[in-house]
Amino acid sequence: MLLMIKFLSKIISIEIILGSRNARGYEFGRTYVVRPKGKHQATLVWLHGLGDNGSSSSQLMESLHLPNIKWICPTAPTRPVSSLGGYTCTAWFDVGEISEDSHDDLEGLDASASHIANLLSSERADVKVGIGGFSMGAAISLYSATCYALGRYGTGHTYPINLRAVVGLSGWLPGWKSLRNKIECSYEAARRAASLPIILTHGTADDLVPYRFGEKSAQSLGMAGFRQAVFKPYEGLGHYTVPKELDEVVQWLTTRLGLEGSR
Predict the structure, then answer these.
(1) CA-CA distance, 200 to 249, in Å (whole number)?
(2) Which PANTHER family match (predicted)?
(3) Strand partners, 17
(4) Short-list 193, 94, 107, CA closest to 142
(5) How does pLDDT run across 38-64, given as a tens digit for each residue?
(6) What pLDDT sits at residue 10?
(7) Cβ 73 vs Cβ 29: under 8 Å
(8) For residue 190, how many other CB atoms are within 10 A of its CB?
(9) 109-137 burial string, b = 16+ CB within 10 Å, else e?
(10) 3-state DSSP call for residue 8?
(11) Which run of H or of E encompasses 21?
(12) Where are the alpha helices (DSSP H) in 27-152?
């Protein structure tokens, strides 16, 4: 009986919310919510990589020693992806080859950033909110960070969330070329950029999102005025995560969100 109770408590610690269509017409999949095991001090949306889903993200987040964080793990829309020759899979936006000259899918980026912001919109005022992700999930997290700083989405609509932390693992920054000019044109944008803690990590042996794009993304954020952006390289790491990397993220979030000593 005791084993059955423990098993059931593990199951119900993750809440499943059915998919929904947002105002832009994109059909998002199921969202998985991992409730905090301690006092609820922060809520983070965690975004999966290309072809993955929110279920696997929720299992990873539940394993982290962050009892005061509520995790919201949505699933991206299923759509054709140019880099896969039009093959259909879950993706936060369309992407071709990742390069300095690649075209950004602004409509897809804004649709996903808006959906993520909506997931955070009902959090209590005393709960700190943030966004993180892996690979393509990291890309949309960093794009959301730029939307927060600029105060608007790429289409010009107001960005409504007061982000307190952003995490990007093995990803890249969409729109990095024009970011500095956009931030420098606004005192408020520069102030928000300077106040937002961001951590980026990247493996030097990443063969899917090459290391130089992670490094370039961090440099672009720094040059645009994101003074609290830090970059952590991992020697020999490919396109995946390792415990040491996740432990550093846990420590960083604990410090940046003021979670020390709380249960």
Answers:
(1) 9
(2) ALPHA/BETA-HYDROLASES SUPERFAMILY PROTEIN (PTHR46234)
(3) 31
(4) 193
(5) 999 999 999 999 999 999 999 999 999
(6) 47
(7) no
(8) 17
(9) bbbbbbbbbbbbeebeeebbbbbbbbbbb
(10) helix
(11) strand 20-21
(12) 54-62, 106-120, 136-150
Please, which residues have CB within 8 angstroms of residue 167's CB and are 6 or more apart in sequence?
A: 44, 130, 131, 132, 133, 138, 141, 198, 199, 249, 252, 253
Locate the DSSP E strands across 57-177. Answer: 69-73, 78-81, 87-90, 128-134, 163-169
CA-based torsion, 110, 123, 230, 159: positive or negative: positive
Cα–Cα distance between 190 and 99 in angstroms, integer? 27
Tens digits of residue pLDDT in 86-112: 999 999 999 987 777 678 899 999 999
Number of Cβ within 10 Å of residue 140's Cβ equals: 27
For residue 137, what are its two tokens?
Answer: 């999930």
Radius of gyration of the chain (CA): 18
Three-class SS of 181-247: HHHHCCHHHHHHHHHCCEEEEEECCCCCCCHHHHHHHHHHHHHCCCCCEEEEEECCCCCCCCHHHHH
Q: What percent of the chain has pLDDT over 90?
A: 82
Tokens of 215: 């490094």
With H, G, I as helix, E, B as strand and everything else as coil, classify residue 251. helix
CA distance 44 to 63: 15
Residues in the chain: 263
CA torsion through residues 197, 112, 73, 38, sign: positive
Q: Is 113 in contact with 153 (CB distance < 8 Å)?
A: yes
Distance CA 78, CA 215 (A): 29
Q: Are strands 198-203 and 31-34 parallel, antiparallel or unpaired?
A: unpaired
